[in-house]
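Fold this complex.
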Amino acid sequence: MEANPMTQDIRPEITPEPPAPREAASAAMSEARSAEVPDTTFGVIEHPDPIINCRDVNVFYGDKQAVFDVNLDIGRHQVISMIGPSGCGKSTFLRCLNRMNDTIDIARVTGTIELDGQNIYDPKIDVVPLRARVGMVFQKPNPFPKSIYDNVAYGPRIHGLAKDKVELDEIVRTSLERAGLLGEVKDRLDQPGTGLSGGQQQRLCIARAIAVSPDVILMDEPCSALDPIATAKIEDLIDELRENYTICIVTHSMQQAARVSQRTAYFHLGYLVEVGETDKIFTNPTHKLTEDYITGRFG
Amino acid sequence: MSDHMTQYTEGHTVRAFDAELEQLRTLVLQMGGLVIDQLQRAVNAIRKRDIGSAKLVVEREATVNQYDIDGEELIFNLLAKRQPMGADLRMIISYIRAITDLERCGDEAKKIAKIARRHIEDGAEIDADFDESTESMGELAVEILRTAVEALDNADAENAIQAAKEDARLDAEYKRSVRSIHDAMISQPALVDVAADHVVVIKALERIGDHAKNIAKYVVFIVQGKDVRHVKAKALDRDA
Amino acid sequence: MNKIGDPGAAGRPISADQAMARVNASLRKRYGAERRFRVYGIASVTVGLAFLALMMISIVGKGYSAFQQTYVDLDIYFDPEVIDPDGLRDQESLMRANYNTLIKDSLLFLFPEASGRRDRRALGALISNSAAFDLQDMVITDPLLIGQTRRVSVLASADADMLNKGKISRTVPESERRVSDQQIAWLETLRDRGRFEKRFNTSFFTHGDSRDPELSGIWGATKGSFYMLLITLALSFPVGIGAAIYLEEFAPKNPVTDFIEININNLAAVPSIVFGLLGLGVFLNFFSMPRSAPMVGGLVLTLMTLPTIIISARASLKSVPPSIREAALGMGASQMQSTFHHVLPLAMPGMLTGTIIGMARALGETAPLLMIGMVAFIVDIPQGLFDPSTALPVQIYLWADAPERAFVERTSAAIMVLLGFLVLMNLSAIILRKRYERRW
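Structure:
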């Protein structure tokens, strides 16, 4: 018997012939297999219980178009993750959802984004209450250089949510509690938030966002500046928050998207290529671009 | 739609991943080739009283097992290091199952070879009817296994479905053979020993057909993303 | 050993040994260059420090003596005949009396040989003109002094002071110096008798300008500078910070704001004399504001420092990480809440630093003040924003121009005071920054 079976020449007579190109089964199938962005999004864009409906959303930066005709429903009390290579428009799209793009002079958004049936780009809509309903957590933890307490209390204060100090204390406490931070900071609420570790800072930002009782929390790569343990804590927190909030998360980590979200949307060159249940997207995506991206063939 | 298994192994940004998937593909292909050869030789050993083949098959069983061990280790490492997704994940999961199925086929081939060796060493008489059913079933089993392994390497769902359907023929042949052995045992009680061995042999061939069918279904899983393990072969190409 | 391009070198263009040899060969050159550069740097720093030391030594060497002033102890007989021959003892006659006679008499008592008119005058020139006024003050506050003899310390004249401080060389021929041999002899006699005394020069810090160097001081100029800086600070800080906040946080990015930005940057580089001309044309000629007034000076310096303050304030606003703005806006804060709650507190130390540095520049500025008449000889201490006054640097300029020997040390002393203020202001800027700066 040979010592190493691998060196044996036991290749069978199977000669894998170079396959002959076959006729495509259907046009849709061929489109799915091509590396071109599709005209319409693959998968199911609708959701039975949507909180946000986006229709024909286009975003322009000056003459440059960054997002093309995105149609997407975001389900209530669900985590939807948006993935795609850098510059694919996922962050830009996310920022449309609470009109953060308004802060950029040259940005222009067309189409409709309805939050519970109300178009947020309606000229009558005021962004201040909108942003209270749709909170945001950013890539780099950005607590205000104030005390932990003031960080969380800031939102309720400017929106006048608390009637008195007792109520404000309660809001701060529950927000920190929900963000899983209370145990770590309850003895030093008067210390600066910037003195916390990166992961704690990010959870502080989440606490700050939920202090104004939003319906939706947008997260723009919330873990990209954190170590794996801090990342795991945030992911666990996201899963817990899902009970009360709708969460849209943009992430560069496909594993993270797979871990935390129920639905996944894949963006490419400003187009929403495919959207579907996370389990389906990561095991058996329909479109070739999605497949190539999740299997690490580009991006 | 599908071209060749290499389209599933190639094109990753991390080229080391390509190399590892290619290594896995080659390993399964070699293992498949070896197991087909084992089966072929085992059937020949029975039919042609070829003691050399019988011994070789029994000897090489260890090599088949080594493939099983190496393949599983390779896949462990791949899963740990690369966190495969999508088609990569389907391919790797299918390959680990295919390796198991091939290893079982190897076991069955060894079983046949051992019976052949015993027959030859004992100088037992073989009934011509038995011989014929061994030959036809053996050929069919080799054919199905070969088609399945080829389909796996070609990522060819159509041929895979074909192989899966062929298994029905093998099953029919098996039933027919069992019945005829039954009849023979009643009419010729002296043949009972040989007949019992023969039942084991054709049962092994029937099992090999089942394993080959499994492998064929994995091809469908890789290519179409559908889990068809428990779908009847006849229903396979209904919406392929 | 592999050769270059040898494929046996496992894909390397040159072998490892060769690479090492080449690296080692180039190391000596690299270290040499590094050493040379270090030497250049140290040499530059040394030269710079040497010039600074030279300047400081020259200024301090010339100026330190101005902080002391020579006084002469004289036994003054408050002669009732001279002060108040009529015995009225009323304010008016006490005011009118010739106190110089008392001093001359006292000197004549010491040097009876000086009998001629010329000698008497030369003797009198040893004592400052202000001595008579000091005696007058003494008598008016205490009329009982009349008829008594008191040892009074009177201010020596600038010439006597200079001689005492050794600033007048005795080797120079008599005709070429302001003090005669006779006067030198008298002064030496006075010194030998222990009647010379050097005291801290308080009048330098309490007086305005004067024709008599021993009487001149910087208080008038300091107060003028203070009023001007007050105006400058009160106007340029709010206007500058306001403009910076608007431009940085609120203004849309368009050609108009770009144009404004370019203009601000250009204004910061405009020579200061141009601002002086502008002040002359606008504030004096058009608005008919008074000349030499701290108000006008302050306005001109405001114009001059505004661009600097705007630029530094914008820079400190820019240095506030955008993530803070995003965080506030993302919470639903309005643009103004985001700016005033979060951005401004973080930018404030930088803005204050910029303002203080701008103020320090304004404090040291002369050229624009020349154009609006602040270069005048003004004795009175300004009491308000519209009183004629001068400024510290202008005072230095005036004194530097004065022919009297004694103004040389005063010029340097004034420079020292000005430098002291500048160091103080810059120090406070550094302390502010160190103290309130936040790090990310």
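The two ends of chain A are 47 Å apart (CA to CA).
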